[in-house]
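Late entry, evening session. Most of the bench is empty. Finally got around to the prediction I had been postponing all week. Sequence below, unchanged from the version circulated by S.P.
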Amino acid sequence: MRNHPLAAFILALAAVPAFSGELAPGPKVGTVLASALEASPSLRRLAQAVRWAPGVSLVVELREQPPGLRAHARLDVSPQRVSGTIFIPPGRFEEQAVLLAHELTHVLDVFEGRPAQGRDAEARAVSSEHAVHEDFAACRHRHRKPAAGQVLACAVGPEITSPEGTPPAGG
């Protein structure tokens, strides 16, 4: 992640004293997180909201999900702090970004004192998913005919297929 153009932006945000929230990549997630933030303005806004939220501290990790879950978060909530881990599954880059947006929306609900479960909470989270899908669709539309050898973060993205960080065969 150190050489990624967005890494400097992420590190700069963390160094600004006005920002007191934290969104950090766990092992093997740095490239996914940085590329997802670069590809999706909607996801970037959610991440910035976390960074502006005093007392929010999150780590994003890749982990196979329990049956019936697409992604999940484990949070420790106190009156002045929301901390925990968001677990997204190994897999397609775009789907990882979508699931991260979904979980960040729930975390922000908790931080802002709204219920993180129920019909309204799920509607907000699904709305965030749709926004990220639209960002990727817009990016693909802008880059319909990439030059030979051109890699587009929004269209290809890094794909990690196991929690150990093993890329797919041929990738």
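Two things to note before I forget:
The first helix runs from residue 5 to 15.
The two ends are 17 Å apart (CA to CA).
Will write this up properly tomorrow.
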